[in-house]
Write a structure and sequence with these properties.
alpha+beta, two-stranded antiparallel ribbon
Amino acid sequence: MNSNYELKMGIEESCKILCRKQLSAAESSAFALRIGQDYRVHWVMDNLPSATKYIDETNPAKPVTIYDLGFPLGFRGSADIPGTTSGVSYLNNHLLLTIKYHKDESSFQVLPEWG
């Protein structure tokens, strides 16, 4: 499946709205069920998987960077998350994409050798 996001290399963009959709009760229930089942969204760009970066600060003296494949479809609200209602499912609909790449300043041409 392809995404409707349009990305251009070397051009930084922010706050683009992909779409607006009012979910039906059945669609909301389906998302809530899948959020409760810890569904993840897996994107592939240029044959590389997307990942979510976390910092494990269990040991504050030595934080560890962890990459988890994809990102959660959503989350359940709780008293620990300000602005949410406990037990209510929330769809992750605001995304921050960081795409890293390098520029190859050298150029070359490969010519086939026949015979």
